[in-house]
Write a structure and sequence with these properties.
- The protein is mainly β.
- The chain folds into 6 domains: 31-142, Immunoglobulins (Immunoglobulin-like, Sandwich), CATH 2.60.40; 146-308; 317-428, Immunoglobulin-like; 445-531, Immunoglobulin-like (Sandwich); 539-628, Immunoglobulin-like, CATH 2.60.40; 631-755, Jelly Rolls (Sandwich).
- Strands 17, 18, 20, 21, 23, 24 and 25 form a 7-stranded mixed β-sheet that branches.
- A hairpin with a 4-residue loop joins β36 and β37 (587-592).
- The longest helix has 13 residues, at 13-25.
- It is elongated.
- The two termini are 83 Å apart.
């Protein structure tokens, strides 16, 4: 993209970013008929509020809105807009539960009005201007109005003067103007005469007077048609908002047709910026980032005397042989291939450039460009020393490109010629270092080493610039190329918290990319994998789950691997003693140590101490199981008194039964505890059998003769119904008597059947 096209692409940025921001932060606008809760008064003591202050407003970069709490309010609705009449949709609407709200960092720099209303459930109280004592909606300016100070030069200057000023905190670029006529409105208005305009990311710049279109830290020419005329001149400077250009993520190399700094975008047409798109072939201008301009500095007067620089200088430029990094792997290496540019070195990190001294020189000017003809200048810096290390933000030079640099000797009248044979070097930016892997549950923070900290660690000195912002991407593990992302954010600090992102369970990868103040997208970090697991584990199944034998081992299966399994953390309800054995990371067995109650229904209960590998506690209620209501004579649930024996019979339940021979003084019995609403006795009949009594809860419910002229089992002889659902006992007692036709008093218990 040409410099002019970059200028045009910058014009509509504020509107575009605001449009991009709204889907992320703005809620639907409130209808005029929204229900109002009359008892809820309008909040007061709004801060910040510049509505009563003279322009310029107090400008804030981090804006926290505050107001006095309203009694009875369950929350508050905050609106931020550009129109004091609220005739347009608000820029942002947000419901909060506390009486403060910090604006998102992506809100464009501009002046705003804001208001707040108390909420009570779905009802909205009075807005600020609707209270019984109306108050104006509060105002604030997001941005800054700082003006650069300590401007030089002033008065008579010769040669090619360097313009310098005090840096403005958080500014990413500066606009410098030199005019042959006074500036209107005391310096705040547009110049009324011929003007030279230059954009730079540094707090100093030199306007060139040569015919070659030089560029110093800007995307367009920094030449002057006014310097050297000897006429009185006037100049001023203002700081511009931080910005990032719309280059593709894959572009980490310097541009081939422009300097490394993009022309700052503008939120409104500016007479100093062309309003067309030269060379535009139909793609259109597509600005994507916001801008804010600080206040103009005081106007400084100067006169250019037109003194030409004296002397020439042909220094011996030394190729860097070591980078400033202490890591041995970061040493520079020379490229000696025949096709390599002259004296090229490849350096990981920033190299130190060195040269020999020139007699009479008071300073040296280092010029760095992307080509050996210096038609695409990247940086120009003056220094009194014999070396220079570029510790600020530089893009990678790429696989096929190099940075070329030359040195000029300078004195009070200017700088001599460049060295005729420029040296070159390549630079590879280290990837960001990611922090601790995020946790598996709850809110989590992605963190990394800041760009400034990385530079300081490499160079051993404080970095002059930090990254403008960081681009964070999160993708599912099946999209390691980040072709599909689940989270994408730009933040202005070296961490990102997932406060408003809902991540499903699964594996993810994430990476971060620094965005430097010169519009470069630096290399992505390596990816880091992490796992999210916000779903609590649960007991999926118990087997068997129906017609469970009273002493049967139960197999348990959990939804995922768990820890904390024990006989006390997995139990049955109603309470029944059982032993748990872990058989796998998500399986176990539960074996009753006392017979379960026939006909009963049990729930497997899991304690909160059972957790998955992410630390989520298991759901308490597990599957339900029911115990077999048929109780064979051999069941451990049945208890027998003395005098019983086990006999076989082809038609008995299970092929066998318990037999006893009662007498007038010996009454053998069989007892069972059960849970249900009824119970039935299945017995064996024979020619020598006698009477049995059936007692439920110690109350006789039936007296049955078990005599029959021929033998046989599997005969239901008594049924008890109508019991209250719950725990009961049944007892079968041999009486030692019989009907007259019987030959004896024998009895045979085959089975009991519970009615649930």
């Amino acid at each position: 993209m040409t410099p002019s096209a970059r200028r045009c692409a910058a014009l509509a940025t504020l509107a575009t970013l605001t449009t991009a921001l709204l889907p992320l932060t703005a809620l639907p606008s409130l209808a005029a008929t929204e229900p109002v809760a009359a008892p809820l008064a309008a909040p007061v003591s709004l801060s910040p509020d510049d509505s009563a202050a003279a322009y310029p407003h107090t400008a804030l970069q981090t804006v926290r809105l505050n107001w006095a709490p309203v009694a009875g309010a369950s929350g508050y609705r905050v609106q931020v807009g550009r129109d004091a009449t609220w005739s347009n949709d608000p820029v942002l609407t947000q419901d909060v539960v506390t009486s403060e709200f910090t604006l998102p960092v992506a809100l464009p720099y501009a002046s705003y009005v804001w208001r707040v209303a108390a909420l009570k459930g779905s009802l909205v109280g009075h807005w600020t201007s609707e209270s019984s004592q109306p108050q104006a909606d509060a105002e604030f300016t997001r941005g800054w109005r700082t003006a650069p100070v300590t401007l030089t030069p002033s008065g008579p200057v010769g040669g090619r003067p360097e313009f310098a000023w005090t840096p403005v905190a958080n500014a990413s670029a500066y606009e410098v103007q030199v005019s042959s006529k006074e500036f209107a409105d005391g310096g705040q208005g547009q110049p009324v005469g011929p003007v030279d305009t230059c954009y730079t990311v540094r707090s100093r710049v030199t306007f060139f007077t040569e015919h070659v279109q030089h560029a110093e830290d800007n995307a367009g020419p920094c030449t002057s048609t006014l310097l050297g005329s000897g006429a009185p001149l006037h100049w001023r400077v203002r700081a511009l908002d931080r910005f990032v250009d719309a280059a593709t993520d894959g572009s980490t190399s310097p541009a081939t047709a422009a300097g490394i700094s993009d022309l700052p975008p503008s939120g409104a047409p500016d007479a100093s910026i062309p309003a067309n798109c030269p060379g535009d072939t139909g793609g259109g201008c597509d600005p994507t980032h916001p801008v804010a301009a600080g206040s103009w500095s005081p106007v400084v007067d100067l006169t250019s005397t037109g003194v030409a620089p004296v002397g020439t200088y042909d220094p011996t430029v030394l190729v860097p042989t070591a980078s400033v990094a202490s890591d041995p792997d970061n040493l520079c290496t020379l490229d000696t291939t025949p096709t390599a540019p002259a004296e090229r070195a490849t350096c990981v990190d920033f190299p130190t450039l060195r040269w020999t001294a020139a007699p009479g020189a008071s300073r040296y000017r280092v010029t760095v460009a992307l080509d050996d003809a210096f038609t695409n200048i990247q940086r120009i810096v003056d220094t009194a020393g014999l070396s220079w290390t570029p510790t600020d933000a530089w893009a990678d030079s790429g696989a096929s490109g190099s940075y070329f640099y030359a040195v000029q000797a300078c004195d009070v009248s200017g700088c001599g010629d460049k060295s005729p044979t420029p040296a070159s070097f390549r630079k590879v930016t280290p990837r960001p270092t990611l922090g601790t892997k995020p946790g598996s549950t709850g809110e989590f923070t992605l963190s990394w080493q800041s760009y400034a900290a990385a530079l300081a660690a490499k160079t051993g000195q404080a970095a002059s610039l930090d990254a403008y912002a960081y681009h964070v991407q999160v993708a599912s593990s099946d999209h390691p190329a980040f072709d599909v992302v689940v989270d994408d954010a730009i933040v202005d600090q070296a961490s990102y918290t997932s406060a408003k992102k809902l991540y499903g369970d699964g594996s993810f990868v994430w990476r971060v990319q620094p965005l430097d103040p010169s519009a470069h997208k630096l290399p992505w970090s390596l990816s880091q994998a992490f796992t999210r697991d916000s779903t609590p584990p649960r007991l999926l199944s118990v087997s068997p789950s129906s017609r469970v034998a009273v002493n049967q081992r139960l197999t348990l299966a959990f939804s995922e691997p768990v820890t904390g399994l024990s006989s006390s953390s997995v139990t049955l309800s109603p309470a029944a003693p059982a032993t748990l054995t872990v058989t796998g990371n998500s399986t176990a067995t539960l074996t009753p140590t006392k017979p379960l109650l026939p006909g009963a229904t049990y729930t497997v209960v899991v304690a909160s101490t059972v957790k998955d590998l992410a630390g989520n506690s298991a759901l308490a209620a597990g599957p339900v199981l029911t115990v077999n209501p048929l109780v064979d004579d051999a069941s451990p649930a049945l208890t027998y008194s003395s005098g019983w024996s086990v006999l076989s019979s082809s038609n008995a339940v299970g092929g066998r039964y318990h037999a006893a021979a009662p007498t007038a003084t010996f009454h053998p019995s069989a007892a069972l505890a059960f849970r249900g609403t009824g119970v039935a006795l299945t017995a064996c009949l024979a020619p020598a059998n006698g009477y049995v009594d059936v007692l439920v809860d110690n109350v006789r419910k039936a007296r049955v003769s078990t005599y029959r002229s021929f033998s046989g089992c599997g005969v239901r002889v008594a049924t008890v119904t109508g019991l209250v659902r719950g725990l009961h006992t049944i007892k079968v007692v041999g009486l030692g008597s019989h009907v007259s036709a019987s030959k004896g008093n024998a009895i045979g218990v085959d089975a009991l059947t519970v009615t649930p």
